[in-house]
Design brief:
Largest sheet: 4 strands, antiparallel
Helix content: 55-70%
Number of helices: 4
Order of helices and strands: HHHEEEEEEEEH
Structural class: alpha+beta
Distance between the termini: 58 Å
Radius of gyration: 68 Å
């Protein structure tokens, strides 16, 4: 995958991770709020019930105090009734003296009076006891009512808590659903955005490849045409050289060609009339002196027919390397003595580049040593 497309995929995943992390935090906050609300509700209910229990305990304490007071009142009334009765039947008391002064002491009247006093005493005891019992009953009823009210209020607290829990639960799940929908929509928008970005970049890459392919094809066609032009030029040069050989061959003892003796080592030598038919150099119209020892055939070095295959009889071998002579790429040749040469057609001679190559001069250096 193209690095640019991989980068978009990485950016998309990073954006989705960031989105999921953000929504995950919102989900957690929503759940924390829900749990906190429930905790507050439990605490609120516990607090309210505790208040009710304290109020009930206080009410119970007040009622018990009232019951104790009612019991003490009953006991006080019993004592008063007993004291009054004892005083009434005392033989030395005021009532006895009254009966004695009237001559009724130990009479039926006095006995009846005693019986009435006893009855009064019993009535007072019964009345005091009834008042206390009525008070106790009322207090017990009040206490039961207080307990009932306490339980009712607790039930109301529980109901109120339930209502609030249901409300909180509804809010929690509504928020959760909303967050879920928002997350889904946002992630879908991220997918769409990065899908578009991916396609746009992909199309750009395809267009670049198409342009590169068009340039490659153009370059290939250009190189092919250049090669064809070079071959055509070589063919023309060969035909031209052959035509010169045909026109001038055999007209004199040296074959009718002027001998290029620019190499001083061959000065004074001449091409003998031995039937050789060697094409002259199309650039100079002359023949190199070493051509008498042999020239490269077309199959060995296309475009030649006049280029010597030796230097002073030393056979040349192609090294496979090339030399850039001011933009003109030339093959590098080697003689058995290890020296390196390239053919300069415009001068009709070999140029010694042994020294240049030995110095590791940059590719394209055109100056050199002696010529052959």
């Amino acid at each position: 995958m193209d690095e640019r497309l991989s980068k978009i995929e990485d950016q998309k995943q990073a954006a989705l991770n960031q989105s999921n992390n953000a929504y995950g935090e919102m989900f957690q906050n929503n759940e924390n709020l829900y749990n906190q609300q429930n905790s507050f509700l439990n605490q609120y209910e516990s607090t309210q019930n505790d208040i009710l229990d304290k109020q009930l305990a206080f009410q119970e304490s007040l009622i018990n105090q009232q019951k104790e007071k009612a019991r003490q009142n009953m006991e006080a009334e019993q004592k008063r009734a007993k004291n009054d009765y004892t005083s009434y039947i005392n033989p030395y008391g005021l009532q006895a003296e009254s009966f004695a002064s009237n001559g009724l002491l130990n009479s039926g009247v006095s006995e009846t009076a005693k019986l009435g006093g006893y009855n009064t005493y019993q009535n007072r005891l019964a009345s005091a006891n009834k008042v206390m019992q009525d008070a106790f009953t009322q207090y017990d009823n009040d206490m039961n009512e207080a307990r009932l009210n306490n339980d009712v209020q607790k039930a109301q607290n529980a109901l109120e808590k339930l209502k609030m829990q249901l409300e909180y639960s509804e809010n929690y799940y509504n928020n959760k659903n909303t967050l879920t929908q928002n997350q889904l929509q946002y992630n879908q928008s991220l997918d769409s955005e990065y899908f578009n970005r991916y396609n746009t970049e992909y199309n750009n890459i395809q267009q670049e490849k198409a342009r590169e392919e068009a340039i490659r094809q153009w370059q290939a066609q250009f190189d092919y045409q250049k090669q064809q032009d070079a071959l055509a030029q070589q063919n023309w040069e060969r035909e031209y050289a052959l035509s010169l050989a045909k026109n001038y061959g055999g007209s004199s003892g040296n074959g009718g060609y002027s001998l290029d003796n620019s190499d001083t080592s061959l000065s004074g030598e001449s091409l003998s009339s031995n039937g050789l038919s060697i094409a002259p150099n199309p650039y100079t119209g002359t023949i190199n002196a070493d051509a008498k020892n042999g020239v490269f055939e077309w199959s060995e070095n296309p475009g030649s027919g006049y280029q010597p295959n030796n230097i002073k009889g030393q056979k040349l071998t192609k090294t496979g390397d090339q030399y850039n002579n001011n933009g003109n790429i030339q093959n590098i040749w080697k003689t058995p003595d290890g020296r390196l040469w390239y053919w300069e057609g415009t001068l009709n001679k070999y140029i010694d580049i042994t020294a240049d190559m030995g110095k590791n001069l940059p590719f394209g250096h055109a100056s050199g040593g002696g010529s052959r």
